[in-house]
Design goal:
This protein is an all-alpha fold. It is built from six helices and no strands. It has one domain. It is 72% helix and 0% strand. The longest helix has 52 residues. The chain is globular.
């Protein structure tokens, strides 16, 4: 079965994604999910959802938003590492997209992410940046910052967001199918 690290070209981001994935297996029981995550994690309502994806997304988002430097202090303290804010952001985007994918499943997850991620990355994000730039910078500096943001958001959309979409949409569904209809025992090769 594929793991999050298989979806990253950057080896450091693959390493972080894998560390978060390994940690997410241990979080139930001592990590309190925030926002709507407890509702999504309720298997009777959403039997195909992979709860581990929900924990991974909730943990890394809380770490990223928990300090003023994009999670650099909190994530690196947890893993005794030196990940950058950009690497942490890319892994968080991966798990955000994976969460939307796991909610929608193999067809709905891809559609849900295509709509949700596109609106967020190409409309909401740039609108927020444009508003902040209008309040703080000259028109020239604001335009430069906005153009940089749109380029970064496009890279997020076509990189970690798309990778997370594929992981979240298909991983839990195969996991669900295995639970409903366990694969036959394979005999060892001679």
């Amino acid at each position: 079965m594929p793991e999050p690290k298989d979806y990253f070209q950057n080896p450091r981001e693959a390493d972080l994604a894998n560390r978060v994935w390994q940690l997410s297996e241990k979080l139930p029981g001592y990590w309190r999910l925030s926002s709507t995550h407890p509702w999504f994690a309720n298997k009777p309502y959403f039997p195909w959802i992979n709860t581990r994806i929900i924990y991974a997304r909730d943990w890394i988002t809380n770490m990223r938003e928990g300090d003023d430097v994009g999670g650099v202090e909190l994530v690196n303290r947890q893993f005794k590492s030196d990940f950058t804010a950009i690497e942490i952001a890319n892994v968080e985007h991966f798990y955000v997209a994976a969460l939307l994918g796991t909610i929608g499943g193999p067809v709905g997850g891809v559609v849900l992410n295509a709509i949700g991620d596109s609106i967020w990355e190409m409309a909401v994000g740039p609108t927020r940046i444009a508003w902040n730039c209008a309040l703080r910078y000259s028109a020239k500096d604001g335009a430069r910052i906005l153009a940089h943001n749109i380029k970064d958001n496009w890279n997020q959309l076509t990189g970690p967001d798309w990778a997370g979409t594929r992981f979240g949409s298909f991983f839990p569904f195969t996991d669900f199918l295995d639970e409903v209809n366990p694969p036959a025992q394979r005999s060892p090769k001679p």
